[in-house]
Amino acid sequence: MKITFPHLGSMYIFCKAIAETAGIPYVLPRATSNRTREIGEYSTNESVCLPLKIILGNFVEALEDGADTIMMVGSGPPCRLGLYDRIIKIVLGDMGYDFRWLTIPGIFNWQAFLQNHQETKALRKELSPANFARFPWALIMGWKKMVWCEHLEKTAAKMRAVACLPREVDRVFEKGLQAVDQAAGMTSLPKAGKEAIDALLSIRKSERPPLKVLMVGELYTVLEPSINMDIERRLGYLGVEVHRSAYFSTHIRRGSRMDRKLLKERESLLQVAKPYLNYDVGAECNFSVAETILAAREGYDGVVHVYPFSCMPETNASTILAALGPDLNIPILPMAIDRQDMGLRIDTLLEAYVDVMKWRRDGRIL
Amino acid sequence: MKIGLPNELLHLEGVQDFKGRIDQLVRNIQWIHTPSGKNPQPLFLDGDMCYPFKKMVRTSLALLPDVDTLLLPRIVNLDNWLMCPNFRALPDIVAINKERLEQNIGAGMVTPLMESCHNDQLDILANSTARELQTGAGHHLSIAASSEKAGSLAPKDSDLSRSIALIGHPYLVSDSALNNGVPDILKACGYNIALSQEIPFKKLDELAGSRDYYAKKMYWRSGRESLGAFLYFTEVNRPAGIIQLIAFNCGVDALLRIELMSLKNRMEKAIPFMALVCDEHTQRDHVITRIEAFIDIIHGIKIS
Distance between CA A279 and CA B140 in Å, rounded? Predict the structure, then answer.
């Protein structure tokens, strides 16, 4: 058995840690490239959203590299993500691949449990008691690594906006991620994480005051740089501190419905969005609206709304944000991301957007 | 009393049923479904949205000057299956645009929440909506909806050999402005039309259920309708061909298209099947050419 998983920000470190600690063989999918995209585009159709295309490409490349078992993050309705696994299985089957499948349920319920039970029937036979015994420990290890990765990502986003040489932040950040990834014990992990944070914080800073922007939108697009065209980094180079609306751990905690704080937060966000949206549209739609309202209240300089082209919940959020921006007097940049080489276009857009925010801060435009 | 209800929504069985019940409860309703003339255009409407949704918003806003009240149900689910997320936000998007229109439009909006699924609950919802329409009270009721309509056609032995089946969202299949007149073109080519809407939803749901496994159910109602119809027209009663009408950028159709094409490719004796994408920019001439080619394929198969 060789298990594989899709790329979703630094989630690969989480999955890898679980596999390594539990002693399960795995294949790390190749870094997302143009080829990855093209595989997804060629095998689906024009209205399928970019995350599905890229995840499909990740899986094809991992299967080419010898993986035989796919692990996929699930979700519930009404967003399409809840049916990704159903459709990707069909496409891979039609492409002639032979594989086994395991969905990590986005919502934990009986049906998801039974499905998992069914999906792991063959896998369980291939795992030894030692694998099972180490699994709880592996989950803890994976979780801790993920938390460190997210801590690093947040620190890097802050430092990129103020560093004299923002690219140095990227170098130190990559090194830090590697160290966290390679740390194998409960004592070496915090040491590696702390050292990486210290290294990031010790980078020479400039005097320029950073702009503060919140990135909201569809979860996968917010988290995965290869989907969002690395907007966080591009904005960082322009002196913008980017805060994300959610991280991978947020998705897991929301899905588990066990974190009372997050459940309360969810309810309160739905309330905040009420003047504009009177019903939960699904996925992150209402959160995008609510978080934008909160960002305006908290004095953010702007909000970037990222979503894949044709994303059903987020096109509604985008419409509402277009009305909300002038109401709250906050610049909102909607970015419907699809394929193609959009890099230069995005740079131009972001430069103009940053100029607007700077002028507003200087009082040159109101 | 002039009540506006966008014609695109009327293609949904549940909405038709709901309208019928309100008609029985409130006298002297003059229903207006199509705008009369020059209309306010939406200020805020994401260009990436599917064409049917954009048209629903435009029609809703355009109806406002002509009516006393706009009835715009927030349709969350029908027959226990979900509608796409756009239907949840439709009343809010229309309200946001209405508030920002330059001319002051006095028409109110009533937006009952169609969320659950029993006939008696639909009566309760119709009752409360009727009260709202009469009193002009606020909006956002929340009760229930169902479209347990008996369905008419689809006897197993009806001859569909000179028919082409059209499957897709009800509004797409029925509204010629959205489908570029596909049914008329097919009729002009000498073919009859078999619609998925003519088969009882219960039957379609049952067929679609054969593809479900555990949590991985096709949870959209229109998805189940199209999938069930495809299975019906391939396994129960075969027409000469099947055309799937797809709204460009529709998330439901995008996934379903993959599943249906895969099912078709796995058939031993595949039926001619074509996906036709409809959007604002589709030209009728292109549609005619594709349909002609499709019919040639059907003829070719018969010759061979």
Answer: 9
Give B74's contacts in chain A (Cβ within 8 Å): 278-279
Task: Locate the chain A residue with the closest alpha carbon to B111.
Answer: A278
Domain boundary among A79, A95, A127: A127
Q: What ipTM, to 2 d.p.?
A: 0.89
Q: Which CATH class name applies to B163-303?
A: alpha beta
Query: Do A338 and A220 fall within a single domain?
Result: yes
Whole-number Å distance between alpha carbons of B5 and A202 = 63
> Of B143, B40, B140, B52, which is closest to residue B99 (Cα–Cα)?
B40
Q: How many CA atoms lie within 13 A of B235 on its CB side?
A: 14
| Size of chain A, expressed as the number of residues it contains | 366
* For chain B, domain boundaries: 2-143, 163-303
Which residues of A are less than 8 Å from B86 in CB distance? 312, 315-316
| pLDDT tens over chain A, length 366 residues | 899 998 888 888 888 999 999 999 999 999 999 899 999 999 999 889 899 999 999 999 999 999 999 988 777 777 888 888 889 999 999 999 999 988 877 667 777 788 888 888 878 888 888 888 998 999 999 999 999 999 999 999 999 999 999 999 999 999 999 999 999 888 899 999 999 999 999 999 998 899 999 999 998 899 988 888 899 999 999 999 999 988 888 777 776 667 788 788 889 999 999 999 999 998 889 999 999 999 999 999 999 999 998 899 999 999 999 999 999 999 999 999 886 667 888 999 999 999 999 999 988 776
Please classify residue B211 by burial: count the beta carbons closer than 10 Å to its beta carbon, then call 0-12 exposed, 13-18 middle and 19+ buried. middle
Domain extent, residue A45, equals: 3-127
Chain B CA closest to residue A283: B85
DSSP track, B130-177: HHHHHHT-----EE------------TTS--TTEEEEES-HHHHH-HH
Q: How far A322 CA sits from the closest chain B CA (Å)?
A: 6
Q: CB-based contact (8 Å) between A333 and chain B?
A: no
Number of H helices, E strands in chain B: 12, 13
CB-CB neighbors (< 8 A) of B88 in chain A: 78, 279-282, 316
Distance from CA of B158 to the nearest CA of A (A): 32
Residues from chain A that touch B52, judged by Cβ atoms under 8 A, are none
AA letter at B249: N
Contact call for A112 and B91, based on CB within 8 A? no
Q: Is A77 on the interface with B (CB under 8 A)?
A: yes
Instruction: Tell me which residue in A49, A85, A283 faces B216 most closely, judged by beta carbons.
Output: A85
**Architecture of domain B2-143 in this structure:** 3-Layer(aba) Sandwich (3.40)
- Is the minimum CB–CB distance between A286 and chain B shorter than 8 Å? no
Task: Name the pTM for this structure.
Answer: 0.91
A-B contacts (CB, under 8 Å):
145
Nearest to B262 among A94, A316, A336 (CB): A94
Count of the separate structural domains present in chain A: 3
Q: Quickly count helices (H) and strands (E) in chain A.
A: 16, 7
Q: Looking at the complex, does the CB of residue A290 fall below 8 Å from at least one CB of chain B?
A: no
